[in-house]
Amino acid sequence: MAIRKFSERNLTTEVLRRLRGCRDRRLKKIVTSFVRHLHAFVREVKPTPEEWMKGIEFLVETGRFCDAKRNEFILLSDTQGVSMLVDALNYRARAGATESTVLGPFHRAGAPEYSLGANIAKNPDDGEPCLVTGTVRDTRGRPIADAKLDVWEAGADGLYDSQKGEAMNLRGIFRTDTEGRFHFRCVKPTAYPVPHDGPAGRLLKATGRHPMRPPHLHFWITAPGFKPLVTHLFVKGGAYLDSDAVFGVKPELVVDFRKGRDGVWRAHYDFVLMREAPTRRARKGARTPARAPS
Ligand code: BEZ
Ligand code: FE
Q: What does the pLDDT read at residue 281?
């Protein structure tokens, strides 16, 4: 049997040819594209063997930085703009719906559920007091009752509770009233750096970038029949709005925070959710059960 000689010219084609037995069409598409782009990258950059090894060591170290509380790969994806690109391709706000943005690594499942009006800040030194009011509506302006708002934020020290190993603080779950309204107390968001003591941060520094995020408050809003919305509200006039380390700012999400005479900051926002796209079965007006009832 003749042994083929692989060269810079034909190696990519050969790697792709070996995917012909892959039965999973989506996986085949993904790996084909990955190989094509990776080979093109190597052709363009022409790394020395030492540089290539440095790249591999960077990824190994990124893995080492991951544990139950920290995912350095997500941070790498966020800081290199990939998370926002994935979001842009998957969540297209239609008909006046609220824009989405990056989830980030600091959401915690199981945050406390509060009645409307409660304060998510448990310590007096968490930050400046703030009242957030608003509504959740559909794209026709109709209020969505009982929508769930999961909110979280960093304190004035720029840290989330989980970064300090603390119990749940500066986070909570609220539900809209029958008119789709919500209100809760929190602290005025402040700018803070994304974790930058690991490989993702080193890469930022080495490439002349800062790790800062503009002041923001996170929201994850869900309601039955609607597409979940992961988003932020950004403070108008806040620092780093034009250079967010994770590219998450969208002009529609920047809102006025005004300080009242009582020393309390106030912000208002009307969120708009899109209806969940009907499933194929629902579109066909499914008359037969999807599965035989057991
Ligand atoms: C955040 O806003 O919590 C965040 C987002 C992306 C990376 C790091 C932090
Ligand atoms: Fe954040």
A: 61
Q: Is 105 in the pocket of ligand 1 (CB under 6 A)?
A: yes
- Ligand 1 binding pocket includes 106 (Cβ within 6 Å): yes
Strand 265-273 vs strand 258-259: parallel, antiparallel, or unpaired? antiparallel
Global confidence as pTM:
0.89
pLDDT tens-digit map of 234-249: 999 999 999 999 999 9
Output the CA 43–ligand 2 centroid distance in Å. 37
CATH code of the domain occupying 72-273: 2.60.130.10
Nearest CA to ligand 1 atom 6: 104
Rounded distance from Cα 213 to ligand 1 centre (Å): 8
Binding site membership of 253 for ligand 1 (Cβ less than 6 Å): no
Domain boundaries, the chain: 11-16+25-61, 72-273
**What is the percent of the chain with per-residue pLDDT over 90, rounded to a whole number?**
85
Ligand 1 geometric centre to CA of 45 (Å):
30
